[in-house]
Amino acid sequence: MTRNIQEVISQMTVEEKASLCSGLNMWQTKPVERLGIPSIVMTDGPHGLRKQGNPADMSSKTVPATCFPSGAGLASSWDRELIQEVGKALGEECQAEDVQIILGPAVNIKRSPLCGRNFEYFSEDPYLSSEMGTHHVLGVQGEGVGTSVKHYAANNQETLRNSINSIVDERTLNEIYLRCFEGPITAADAWTVMCAYNLVNGDFCSENEYLLTEVLKERWGHNGIVMTDWGAINERVKGLKAGLELEMPFVGPEHDQMIVDAVRSGELDEAVLDSAVARLLTVIFKASDARKEGFNYDKDIHHQLARRTAAECMVLLKNDENLLPLNKSQSVAVIGAFAKNPRFQGGGSSHISPTRLDAPLEVISVFAEGDVSFAEGYRIDEDTIDEALIEEAVALAASKHVAVIFAGLPDSFETEGLDRTHLDIPSSQIQLIQQVAAVQPNTVVVLSNGSPVAMPWLVDVKAVLEGYLGGQATGSAVADVLYGEVNPSGKLAETFPVRLEQTPAYLNFPGGKSEVYYGEGLFVGYRYYEAKKEQPLFPFGYGLSYTTFAYEDILVDKTHLKDTETTTVTMTVRNTGTRAGKEVVQLYVRPIESTVVRPLKELKGFTKVSLQPGEATTISFTLDKRAFAYYNTEIHDWFAETGSYEIVVGPSSVDTPLSSTVHVVSTQIPFKKVTRNTKFYELLAIPETAVFAQEAMDSSIEGLKHMGAMFAESMDDGGIAQLFEAMLEWKKYDGLRSLSGMMGSGMTEAKLEQIIDEMNAKLGLK
């Protein structure tokens, strides 16, 4: 239905306009019935529908819904199409339950493995997070249901999340912590964005004009609404001015009245309120018009999707002597309380009431033709070592061909609202694994956890399957992978460290009582481990298969290109094993030289391919300016500097057998204006100023010779030559002002100012 929103606004009172800016109750927006403005319903996600039977009643039970793997698992699939398919299913369930907006996806960066909410988040890498979030949004919104990308922004810990001030430099904020939000907003057009509780650089996210207006609305062109996380409001009118449209949930009439009073006193321009209402009405009408009365979905089909998805997300971390897949005729000792009572989802606002739940023990008992016996091994609700349970498990393991131990993190170890303090699984589980492995050489560990864990027992076992929090079909999916019905193809979307002290944010997480300093800067996740030459337990992008793959014949269609052009990279991937399988092909870009600090390499492309034994396929990636760019804080934009870049491709961040080099020429000016402090290297890279810069550099030689003579008596000829060479190199990083102070340069202050004016004129800069 087409409506003239401005006409509707013109008929509204100030009170009605203000009323739209907060909820009706916990989960609904307010209607304005006289003008035909409906109320819409929103509810928690992101990996399943958490709707209370009565949106107005907090005590009502949540309705059953399909629980898909949480974000940590979904990202490990590296499968855009699969993520979109899950999103579509979520949209269908929202339609069936008359929900117009589901709160998710959660795309925040995994800055530290200790964050208690990491199970909801996709990755440590902003490009991967952005791509996963984009396709989640496309899937949901394709069904006429809105999403709310969260938690915007720099919400990377649960400790003091309501009040902590995240101190992040501009470049890091844009390259890492905002980049993950960009795709869902610009490519997928997310209807809503949820602002976080915390402050960023001194301003609450709910009233941070840089985040809500400058970046979100002006740079990214977001036309939807910004809503608060539940209760994430500070000053209501200030938030509205900064770009916050909707406060959730409703806390009483006082906040609406604040808006009315601010308009009537002149503190708030009514045009600002009208703009917010226009955005609100656009989303409300769009969501209401897309409702499908009487819609239903097939619970069995969605459960099968959850099973297929969980299997695609699992990461095979170790498989010595090809112990996996198991032979169905083998006798199996299934050990661990999680085998009967699986931990399939995280705690907090994303907790789903599943439509059904597959327990691993039950499914393995159906799969196996040999004897299957069970031992509890440990108690889920307490971390105490029960020697009797361990002895029972050890005896059982020794009597079977294989022992499969289900271990991981209980709810008490990771949940929304609390950060972890260590990387360990419960000590009762550690001792169980070590003692079982001592008597059973064929021991497999299946992990259920939302974030990395330390593995002091890794050398003791032959195989490890990372199952993450696999959703309601996790039991069936585990059996599918253990017995080879599904060839594992998941890859880690985060680095697994050996120990906590090795992690990038170790010295800066979770900060003090009022602020947390992002001291590691750009070096989050694999960027840090590579720069520091740290050996992690398992690297980013890593994952094994039951088959093998070969990478062949990389080709770049342009080896020289301007930053306004694209280049296409092609290569061949071949299945060299005996089983059908899927491979995640990863492309990274490495600047060979740079005038700024940059990570060694960064993920800029990936795709997942399915290949039969012996089959090969050609894969193409198209790289544009952003693949080579960093965020330039002088021009507040992405900038690809002139230089050579190595493109590397392979199965993980540390295994990139294919490489090629391209040379990129920048057409962009990396500064707003030439000044006395503009660097020579910046001028050398611009055709209009390169000649002057080179002549000025040449004229500096005489001055450098005078300086070199000062050292002649204390250094030999070789030392002087080396010093002179270094000084010439350093000169590129000097500002123009150094010319007027250089002996022998002949440059006066007046002449320098004249040259600066001439260069600005040539470049069209004022």
TrEMBL record:
TM stretches of this protein: none
Domain Fibronectin type III-like: 583-653
Signal peptide (UniProt feature, chain positions): none
One Pfam entry name: Glyco_hydro_3
Classification via InterPro entries: Cellulose_deg_GH3 (IPR050288), Fn3-like (IPR026891), GH (IPR017853), Glyco_hydro_3_AS (IPR019800), Glyco_hydro_3_C (IPR002772), Glyco_hydro_3_C_sf (IPR036881), Glyco_hydro_3_N (IPR001764), Glyco_hydro_3_N_sf (IPR036962)
Keywords annotated in UniProt: Carbohydrate metabolism, Glycosidase, Hydrolase
Protein family: Belongs to the glycosyl hydrolase 3 family.
Record-given protein name: Beta-glucosidase
